[in-house]
Structures are given as C-alpha cells and as structure tokens.
Amino acid sequence: MDILEIIKTRRNIKIFKLDPINPDKLHLWLEAAAMAPNHRMTEPWEVYIVGPETRAKLNHKTNFGDAPVVLAILSKHGATAIETEENALATACFVQNFNLAAWAEGVGTFWSSMGGNPKNREILGVPDGYDVIGVFGVGYPDETREPKQRTPIQNKLKQLL
C-alpha cells in the first residue's frame, strides 16, 4: 500500500483476532513512531506495555476488543504551558505514525481516552507531570468497518490574503 491508501483505509478497530503480535514488529512500529515531529527534540512520549493484571484492573467496557497488545502512550509536561501543549501534539503525531506503520502491515489499533481518568492514571502508575494521550488495543482486525462520512475538505479551507 502507498501512504495515501494507508491513511485513507486506516480505521479504529473495535474487535481483534487473538493472533499474537510479533514483538520485533511492535518495536519497529514504535521506532517509526519516534520519528514524529517534536519541537526542540523534546521526544516527550513514554510507552507503557500494559500487562494482563493491569489491563483487568482498567476494566475497559470492551476489553479493548480482545486485542493481544495494549499500550498506554503518555506525554511529558514541558517547562511552560506552551511546551506542554507542544509535547501533547508531538505525542499525537507519534501515535499517528504508530497507527499508520502498523496498519501498513495489516495491524489495527483501538484508541481509548480512558487513561485520563484519575482512577485509571493510578492503575497505570502515571507519574505527575505526564498526560495520558491514549490507551490502545493493538492487533489484527477481526472486523473493519466502513469509513464514516467526512466533511469535504473544501468546506474546511480558508484563504487568507
């Protein structure tokens, strides 16, 4: 697949096959994710591989679609409010790189925002000074849904003179 096809076909996966993810592939996708743009090379992301005990405590309503891997992606706060915001944006780019690299090899993700909940932060052991950008199920899709209708991009374009 070329990059445009990868971007256009990637979906948030809700149900996964139980097939394991090759740890070397996971590492490769994380390395690709780390090529994300980040202001002043802060590299603010941290990746937690969530094991079965922690995953059970999180009590996600769908158990992350039975994904074989669950990751929590964190963003470190900066020295200023602006740097904290830049770090969160850079970490979102990290996530997108990861999602696209995995999708290129037939592996999908389920992005949940549940990590921002104070109880889940405690379960994950998130230290002060970090935001949880998301908790992700990662695996081979058992179901891929059709894309939802998007607003035509021409409706979002503004020309400044």
Automatic annotation (TrEMBL):
Pfam families: Nitroreductase (PF00881). The keyword Oxidoreductase applies. Residues 57-140 form the Nitroreductase domain. The keyword Transmembrane does not apply. Keywords: Flavoprotein, FMN, NAD, NADP, Oxidoreductase. Its cofactor is FMN. It comes from the Bacteria. InterPro entries: NAD(P)H_nitroreductase (IPR052530), Nitroreductase (IPR029479), Nitroreductase-like (IPR000415), YdjA-like (IPR026021). Belongs to the nitroreductase family. PANTHER family: NAD(P)H NITROREDUCTASE YDJA-RELATED. This is Nitroreductase.
